[in-house]
Amino acid sequence: MAAVIQPVLIVNGDKDMMVPTENSYMMHETIKNSQLLNYPNAGHGSLFQYAERFASDVFSFLGE
After folding, report:
1. What range defines the domain where residue 49 resides?
2. Looking only at Cα atoms, what is the longest distance across the chain?
3. Is residue 13 part of a domain?
4. Taking the mean position of all CA atoms in its chain, how far away is CA 22?
């Protein structure tokens, strides 16, 4: 992951059974310019469970 130099947004739900939360934390620690969003009480579809918040977070991340 050292080859990744652009900013990266990592999104996870803290109840995600497909991508365990600890994996997201490991990715965040490995990728230098990463930001981790961990939505509470959300599963693998956290971006749908928190659609408005996710959209706002993505726009913020993109600087819009």
Report:
1. 8-62
2. 32
3. yes
4. 12
| CA torsion, ordered 35, 41, 47, 49, to nearest 10 deg | -160
For residue 58, pLDDT beyond 90: yes
State the average pLDDT over residues 29-54: 93
Per-residue pLDDT tens digits for 7-30 = 999 999 999 999 999 999 999 999
Instruction: Establish how many alpha carbons lie within 13 A of residue 24's alpha carbon, considering only the half-sphere containing its beta carbon.
Output: 20
What does the alpha-carbon distance between residue 17 and residue 27 come to, in Å, rounded to a whole number? 16
Q: Which of 64, 46, 49, 41 is closest to 10 using CA atoms? A: 46
